[in-house]
Amino acid sequence: MWAFLHKLGSPKEFYAITARWLTPLWLAAVALILAGGVWGLAFAPADYQQGNSFRIIYVHVPAAFLAQSIFVAMAAAGLVFMVWKIKLADMAAAMMAPLGAGMTFVALFSGAVWGVPTWGTWWQWDARLTSMLILFFLYIGVIALRGAFVSREGGARAASVLAMVGVINIPIIKFSVDWWYTLHQPASFSITEKPAMPAEMWLPLLLMVLGFYAFFIAVTLTRTRSEILRRESSKRWVRALVEEGR
Predict the structure, then answer these.
(1) DSSP secondary-structure letter at 196?
(2) Domains: count for the chain
(3) I need a labelling partner for 51 at 20 to 30 A (CA). Which of 24, 83, 103, 113 fits?
(4) DSSP per residue, 60-87
(5) Does 114 map to a domain?
């Protein structure tokens, strides 16, 4: 396993190995999101209290999960880059950040839309909402830092440090509904606990969550492969790929 991970840390090996993963990941993402979306939006029963407005859960929850997971992955990649100087980790972290920011925005916006019929307002300075907003600003800060330095390595180091420090916000988001009085309901879906919803409501949610994660991995691999070609353009193996039209 360690030998495989070490091999995967090479841009050339990573580019070759991940080529065979892309098609299955994209197909899985499309199939899972379509199946979960159609099931949840068209066939799942309406909630007995919220009616059909609850269906925004099928976008809000996967986006919120992914927003937090991407930041943790980005911080882990930053740690690998800072400690072991593996430049591929920095490439991956750089490619994750825009998607993470986008997912955080989707989670905030869908939550605001959901809040109107549920709470009667678009926004409350609620512990969960506020910590998610901080996460969005952390993403923006990480992206901005990469372009704020003359040297790429300086920007990468600064972005990695901010990601590693900012990751402390993730447990705050997760446990905010337990630590403080909050309008936000407890988790509707958990991997470790029995779902509070009936199967015909949480199964499509599970499909959507899995589809979002497959989408994240597919996008990250695709973008990282493109970044490898950009940064390694002077290498012989990249020039050979270009000549072969690959």
Answers:
(1) S
(2) 1
(3) 103
(4) HHHHHHHHHHHHHHHHHHHHHHHHH--H
(5) yes
